[in-house]
Amino acid sequence: MPVLEDLHQATDDIVKSIQIPACPEMLANLQRELGRDEPDPAKVSAIIRRDVAMSATLLKTANSAYFNLKRKAETVEQALSFLGLQQCGAILQGLIARKTFNA
């Protein structure tokens, strides 16, 4: 699926450009909430907002040329709304994996 591969490449490129380390506790909290049968978007948003690296990754990705959104996401909540919870979860899982393997 070329589109999915392009998305993974774009996400990977953006995640690689982030230099602020994510807090391991925040990453664990995010994984726990996203792992629920029905993740709560308000809880996901609150977790992301508490971590600069996660917030920056999500906003940078949402505002990237890849998604070419008509409006720019200015907040974590807007990014979650524009991209969807599952897509944002995938983006941040990439950050989690990257930080885990770099450690």
Keywords:
Hypothetical protein af1432, mainly alpha, 6 helices, 103 residues, globular
Structural features, described:
The protein is mainly alpha-helical. It has one domain (2-102): Hypothetical protein af1432, CATH 1.10.3210.10. The protein contains six helices and no strands. Helix 1 (2-17) crosses helix 6, helix 2 (24-34) packs antiparallel against helix 3 and helix 5 (76-83) crosses helix 6 (85-102). It is globular, with a radius of gyration of 13 Å.
Write the layout of secondary structure elements.
Layout: H1 2-17, H2 24-34, H3 41-49, H4 52-62, H5 76-83, H6 85-102
Helix pairs in contact: 1-6, 2-3, 2-6, 4-5, 4-6, 5-6
Q: Roughly how many Å apart are the termini?
A: 31 Å
N-to-C order of helices and strands: HHHHHH
Count of structural domains: 1
The oligomeric state of the chains shown is single chain
CATH superfamily: Hypothetical protein af1432
Give the strand content: under 5%
Instruction: Write down the overall mean pLDDT.
Output: 80
Name of the CATH class: Mainly Alpha
Shape category = globular
- Number of helical stretches of at least 4 residues: 6
Proportion of residues in helical segments: over 70%
Largest sheet: none
Label the CATH architecture.
Orthogonal Bundle
The number of distinct β-strands equals: 0
Alpha carbon gyration radius: 13 Å
CATH topology: Hypothetical protein af1432
Low confidence ranges: none
